[in-house]
Amino acid sequence: MPSASDGSSPPAPGLDVRLVIDAIPALAWSSHPDGAVEFVNQKWHDYTGLSPEESYGWGWKAAVHSEDLSVMLANWGGSPDLEETRESKVRLRRSDGAFHWFLLRREPLCDETGAVVRWFGTGIDVEEDSQKEMLRVAEKRTLELIADGASLSGQRSQEALRAALSKVENSEPNLRQVIDTIPALVWCMLPAGPNEFLNKRWHEYTGLSPEESQGRGYQAAYHPEDIPRVMERWQELVVSGEPGEIEARLRRHDGVYRWFLCRHEPFRDESGKIIRWYGTSTDIETLKQTQEKLREDERELRRITDAIPNPIVVQDPTGGPIYANQATLDYTGMTAKDVVAPNFRERIFHPDDLQRLRGERTAALVRGIPFEVEQRALRKDGQYRWFLIRYNPFRNEQGS
Q1: What is the C-alpha to C-alpha distance for residues 82 and 88, in angstroms, rounded to an integer?
Q2: Alpha-carbon span 290 to 132, nearest angstrom
Q3: pLDDT-based confidence at residue 39 (cuts at 50, 70, 90)
Q4: What structural domains does the chain harbor?
Q5: Each residue's pLDDT tens digit, 124-162
Q6: 3-class secondary structure, 319
C-alpha cells in the first residue's frame, strides 16, 4: 500500500463497502457452518465461470479438482480452533478448463457461545509458485539420487456479488464484518496514495491503530530495506493503471517481520478513470522459507554433482534440458545458458545419431520408463566420442 505522491488530490466518491469485496484481487466467499456457500465475489465468477447461483450451496465443489476435494473437506472438517483446518492448497478449475493451484484460507465468525455461525474465506492463485516449487523438488530429488550413487538423467460481475450479498443481510455493518473477517489484510487507497480504509486484520497484525495508519502512516509497517523497491514498483503500477503484485516484509505487532504478497487492483468509474486502488496482503512467510531451503539444498546438491566426473543432464518431461553438471560443460565447452537453448542436442550429438534415435527416444519419453541409447557426443575439440546414455524418470506424488 505505498503512496503515489505527496500532492493533494480531489476528493473521491464516498466509499461503497460492497465494492471492496468485489474489487479485492482474490476469490472471496461466505458459507454456512457446514460449508454450504452463501455468496461468492466477482473474482470467483470471473475465474471459475460459475455464476453465484451455480456456486451456492455445494455447487462450488464443481470448481475443485476431484483429487483435492476429499482432502480439503477432510481437512476442513476438523476443529475451527486449529490453524491447519483453516488453510488448504487445492487446484481450482478456470473458466477455460485449466486448473491452477490456489491457497484457500478461511476464518470463522462465532457467536457469544463460541459456536461457528459463518465462515469467510479467500483464495489466492499460487500456480506459479507451485510450479517453481515442483521443479525445485524434482531437481533436488534427482540430484539426491545422483549423490547416492544412482546413474540418472531425467527429471513439472459486480452485479453478481451485489445479488449474493443481498442474501446475507445487505447492510453496511454486515459487509464491514465480512471485510474484517476475511483472512487477509485488506485495504483501499485513493489514486494519489493515502489510504482510505484498512480492515481490522491489518490493525491486529501491525499493531498500528487507525489513527496511526491514517494517510501514509501505514508505511511504518514496511521493512525499511523494502520501501524503495516497493515504491518503485508501486509507481510502475500507477503509471500503467494495471493490476500487479509486490512482495514485501511487514512488521507484526511484536516486531517480527514476515513476507507478504501484496496484490493491487485498480477500480475505475464509468469513464474509465481510476478512483481507487483495492488490495490484499497475504502472508507468504512459510512459502518464502520453503523456497529458500529448497534453493540452498539445490545449490549444495549441484556442488556435489559438479564434483562427479561423469556428464549428467537433467531434463523436463519432454526431454528438454534444464541443467547440466560441470563435467558436461567441460566436455562440450558450453555454458549453462547454452544447455537450456533449443538447439542444445543438435549442437552436441552426431546428426546421424539424432536422426536414427529420434523416434525411439520420443516413444521412450512418452512411455515414461527407464531406457538407454548409444550415440556420439561432440567434444569441445571437435571430436565425437561414443557414449552410453541412460534415462531414468522422476515422478511426483501423483505418479506423473
Answers
A1: 13
A2: 11
A3: confident
A4: 17-130+157-286 (3.30.450.20), 309-391 (3.30.450.20)
A5: 888 776 655 544 443 343 333 333 333 322 333 334 333
A6: coil
